[in-house]
User: Fold these one by one.
Assistant:
Number 1:
Amino acid sequence: MMNKSTDFVASLAKGLRVIEAFHAEKPRLSITDVAQETGLDRATARRCLLTLAELGYADYDGKFFSLTPRILRLGVAALASMPLPQIVQPWLDQLSERVGQSCSVAILEGTEILYVARAAQRRVMSIGLMPGSRLPAFCTSMGRVLLAALPRDGARKIIEQSDLSPRTPNSLTGVSELMQELDHVRLQGYALVDQEVELGLRSLSVPILNQRGDTVAALNIGLAALQPGAASVVSDYLEDLLRVQAGLKRVFG
């Protein structure tokens, strides 16, 4: 067991907080921005940022810092060491090829989903998604599948801790209505989200189960909202998702 007083490296923890301050909505940050995002004092934020720049993990134009592709080495190495992405990627590739749509697998991390594997046919979101990408759990189909698998009190706690700001006019943002939706997802075994994350995007998800019936991740198909209604998404793609779900259940002990 770690002795926090002697084994905890505070400077490393601060550096990781600085890295986590960058995200899709804020790819370029000043020293002041990072200090505000992380709660670190300005001098500490500056030292961390300049260290990242010196090691090639960040670019600095004299005012703003941005992460470089080198930072992906950290995430890719971690993801590559996880058995889940290795197991699901061939299934994702085959599913995506068969249905002609982008498919992903994600896990729940806090109030967000973390993409661990993806097979993309075409870009249907304004932001590019890849392993390591994150989205809010409350408004995503994979997030709802993962939340529905939790004890109800646990799911409510995560929703209450989430930033429920609507991403589109279609987004469900009330705790009660979201809990009701999770009950519906739990009962039917899948989640359909119609343009709640981004206008023009629909997504259908099912849980990935182990042989004990526990949810280990979520699997989805994402597609453009070209038809007037979303009901056809279920009839067109649910059977394909359930087929992969059944196959993966035999794989996970």
Note: The first strand starts at residue 28 and ends at 29.
Number 2:
Amino acid sequence: MNDVIDRLARLTPAASPTDDTTADLRRGHRALSRRRIKRAALGGAALTLAVGGAFGGIALTSGNEGAPTVQAADNVRLVDYDGAQMPGYTVAKVPEGFVLQGSDQYVLAVARPDDTSSISDFQDKIVVTLESPSSPAEGATDTTVNGQPATIVTNSEGTTTLKYAYRDLTVVIQVWESIHLTDEQLVEFAEGIEVTADAKPSHG
């Protein structure tokens, strides 16, 4: 009898692998989905880094309407001047971070606060002088300052000079190339200058 039972047990079919196979397929699908999600996330991060790197040299600021505006990093901006005035000229605006270094009857020098050079040394400064009228320099651009005819010219070294009529003389404003004022800013600076009785022409 036991022999018959043993034989019947050996003839019983083995368990179907269907359940295990289905579970394996489900685990495989889940793993594949996780890999796809991870690749998409990494791709988005790489795109963000690439865009950030491409615009790394530009400063973005928010305009009045909330849209970003681009401002070159090395440009300065003009601000209202509220310090002591110097003999010869009064000024309404200066480049941000600059001061009136000093003046005499011929020259007004606008420089950075740590500049200890003589006011007759024009390097890295804005200087204002008076001179006799002269012919415009070759290649000069016509403009106006407070309604008066003016010219702007930049020489081969990058120094920009603005000249405009003042009574029977000419106001001359020279901007060293390292200051990076635009022509529009230079005109705005000039329109804030008043010549006083202490100023004298440098020649003529």
Note: The longest strand covers residues 148-154.
Number 3:
Amino acid sequence: MTQALALPTRKDEDFRYADLAALAPLWPVAVETIAVAAGERGSLALVLDGSEPVAREIAITLGDGASFDLRVLNAPAAYGRVAVRVELGAGAEFTLGAAQLAGGDQTVEIVTDVLHAHPDAISRQVVRSVAGGSATANYLGKVRVAKGADGTDGEQSVRAMLLDRTATANARPELEIFADDVKCAHGCAVGELDANSLFYMAQRGLPPELAKRLMLQAFVAEAFTGAADEEALQAAAKAALERLL
């Protein structure tokens, strides 16, 4: 008889800020596996914008010189979680562009664990979150550089915008490096819409609500720049923002 996998607790780092009550009916989450052979290219666009809670877990393995482009719109009307584990071969390249939109009292989160197991691999992660009401938007991202993985180039850019003082954004970019001669960086910021920019736009005749929408659209658009299906992702993100606002 197979023993059921126990529901995580807040002692588990990857679930520190999760809505465990919302996660419980979805648990355990089946792992989706993607393997990209040496020298090959792959891509995936996930648009989570339905009315039901959703949890996805994806494990990606990249062969030497392979590349994978993952884009995520995490904007369901309920709990939404996307967890991604990636292992890069020598000279492989991984790109993540993700946007999260949440309102009411919902929780959305993206959790990543990117392992540079071999030399000269590149990873780029761009995550943009917008939270209003009493919603919570989480990003927990780890970049691990194994011993001997010299020439690694890893970067995380994490920004969150709070529409209300009652909303919350949790961001934990993390680097774990066991190799020399690497280039790794992360940037993280949580804030509100810039009042000076809104004033500038108002002075040029844009109504405040339209100015707010345009600024948020540009903010979220950063996650999808360069995607193969950028136009469709931007349209889906715009529709999700309209529902949020």
Note: The first helix runs from residue 20 to 23.
Number 4:
Amino acid sequence: MRRLALIAALLLAPLAAPRPAWAQPVLNVYNWTDYIDPHVVQRFQQETGIRIRYDVYDSLETLEGKLSAGRSGYDLIVPTSEPTFARLVRAGALLPLDRARIPNWRNLDTGLMARAAVADPGNAHGAIYLWGTVGMGLRLDRIRDIAPDLALDSLDVLLKPENARRLAGCGLAVMDSATDVLPSVLRWLGRDPDSTDPADLRAAEAALLAIRPHLRAIPGSGALLDMLATGEVCAALAYSGDVIQAAARAREAGRGVEIGYAAPAAGPQIFFDMLAIPADAPHPEAAHAFIDFLLRPEVIAAVSSHVRYPNAVPASRPLIAAPVREDSNVYPPEAALARAFVPGTPGPQAERLRSRLWSRFRAGR
């Protein structure tokens, strides 16, 4: 993975502080790829003496597969609020958080936490780590050449077959995540993003299959970030922060690849990635300590500055690097947030329908 060598080096650095008597020797963290500042990990180790073993995944399906088997060995995970976190809450797979061990809980944005509470009544099992929207990653320099008349503030760019046909030569992609793609497609169709109506799901499948011949790839989040940064694709349905990271990498490379992000003007899907502790975590005390550490304004500001995703600690905002905190794609204006929707969690039958739909889309039939 892209930054694992740096993370590994930091995790092997000598620990400067003695380990508290209560602490366990290792904190086992399972997080998204490229989703933390490695220096934050190092700082926690130095302050507490708790060594971190840090593993990564690039899809919710991978995370759920690991957790569903039980006894994963992880102390802290970062599931997205809907549907993975919600399903884990309902299954009793997460430990209720002891807020007495998390004094920095008071720093969290109450409005955002209220939206996350749809998946976790009373916010009993998780704190928001980072959040974002689902929209379009665009290679602006190529699109201007190929389709200068194309409006870029709608999923029409990708989901209208005539547009997909025009742009296919410069590369199109849809991230490999049914849980994040299908609600956005349903919303684009004017349907309920949480619909379980087979007719609505057939319409979403038809829309995806109509553009399937024009897609270069259906990659995981990490691979899609790389494809955008190198200019291999010029339009992709993706996470906002991944696109913003790709834009920064493209600028640093200096090869003339200009990447931009566009959230659907009609209202994007918004997601919250939650800090949560598995019910069978071997070291829950250390996990609580790490959650509290991450909710310090200066710590979570460093994370947001590094990965270019917004956080839910308002006091961190002035501490975030200016290019990140002033980017309206990172921190959307209130009007745009008001139009955003948080998808619900499909029931088992709807989930099976969606899973089969996605398999057919990936296979192109």
Note: The CA atoms of residues 15 and 321 lie 28 Å apart.
